[in-house]
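Provenance and format

Records in this collection were gathered into a single text stream. Each protein contributes a sequence line and a token line. The two records reproduced below are adjacent in the stream.
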Amino acid sequence: MRLYILRVVTGCMVLAVVALAGAAPAEAGDFRVNARAAILIDAKTGQVYYAQDADRHRSPASLTKLMTAVIAMENGGLAEVVEVKKLAASVSVGSTIGLNEGDLIDLENLLKAALVISANDSTVAIAQHVGGNHDAFIYQMNRKAFLLGARDSRYVNTNGYYDPGHYSTAYDLGLITRYALEKPKINELVSTTEAVVKWINPPDREAEISNTNRLLTSDRVSGIDGVKTGSTSRAGKCLIASATRDERRLIAVVLHAGGDRYREAAKLLEYGFGEVRSVVIFPAGGELARVRVEEGRQSFVPVTVADPVRVNMARDQLKDIRLKLNMEKSLPAPVREGQLVGHAEFSVNGYRLIRAPLVAVREVQPRSPLKRFMYWISK
């Protein structure tokens, strides 16, 4: 184990990075996804189990529609009647449900069309109704992305048409998906294989639709329950897929797949369910660092984690664990055994794993007899 002091920060706290040499018996794995960018995350905790160029800006294509759905759900009612305006009716590129100017259709059916068959005209109708106008809705999409922590995402439309100013990352899309899946209606629609879109006016008009996500009707992955496809000539074949087994849900994001996007997403999900295990990455009592003690009978005190640090992760991630120590630069005597002295932040490949409290391993009494006497009186 080696300790590297990076810098002293305000308030006599020290930041350090520790390379956990010897903590990982495994060698580098050769697992890789055939895509320009990919990520695998835990839907509940947000922990990253695999990342490949996950922070690079990419065109998200129709994966955009997840954020469109989020804004619609949070700012509109499913039963609200939407009158289709000229802008939405004029959309004819890509998948559409053939909306005409003056059509009346409720918001729930528009969301169904957007998430199941990826209808581009429906997202414009949603934006004009919920936002009051298209640009106001786009503003809400960008604001929501920022609030969710998706700081590398920017929207200029609701459906994912290519624009150099319209982009996201695999990591951001994972964050947005986690949030979107917390909404029961979105969760329901992204797992729906077939549905019927119904108009209010014309009163007898309806359209049968099938989900564009072929994994939902495939036997490639057990427990598949979402989420969304996307494709344009610039973005390539993209897919967000989720699956649940034993109450554990994983989200896989594949951007610009080099081959079969369904195969690559399935590979990611199987990797997560097959390779991710609960492991102790640092035991309680093991010395992590030492802190100087002022006016103590010993000049320093070892520090460790208060409890064993246990996380879920794949075996071939162990070699990439890094630790940042945020602890006191020095402590005045006396120091009590188990005294909190800071925190340890474990990460892998730049993504946070867990934050654990750091405590003093042993007691350090004051140097002077009078202070030692007062210390024992206080105990």
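Adjacent record:
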Amino acid sequence: MALLSDVWGIYRQALPVLVVALGGGLFSGVILEGMVESVTTFTGLFVMVPVFLATRGNVYGALGSRIASGLHQGLIDPVFRRDERLLNAVFASFINGIGISVLIGVLTWSVLLVLGWQPAPLSHLVAIMFVAGVLTSLVMIVGLLGLIFLGFNRGYDPDNLVGPIVTTLGDVFGMLFLLLAVTLVEVTAT
């Protein structure tokens, strides 16, 4: 019976977050549909979208796992205050998130050139990725920590929350900030 109780507890905690993640994924798809016209302006944009979203999950999933482990071990308190462990993890994730974003722009441009395509200018692709990377990093860090701390304080296992939270925040805000970055680069390029 303990096994069934454990399974039910995990299911009960994860299901509401997964339903919200489903809605977030659908919303992100709507935003992507709105970006279709920008593809003709910025050749390479669609190549960058899945990589950008995947790296949000990779970088901030690792941060979420570190935070969850710290909470379970009592090394991190579920409150926003100066904590050396927390600051180091957040800073490393922030730098990784921005650095990988810029790298996505450079690699996309390079690969498309090697394949014989005519990508958008390197400066445009890197600018789009940099702006979207910085903005999503900020939202991912604050949102992830806030939701994990809130859930933990209400008795939820942070391990059940990290994946859906990272996916939802990364997809929704990743697409919103990509659209914003494309708009900014379009305006400044003309």
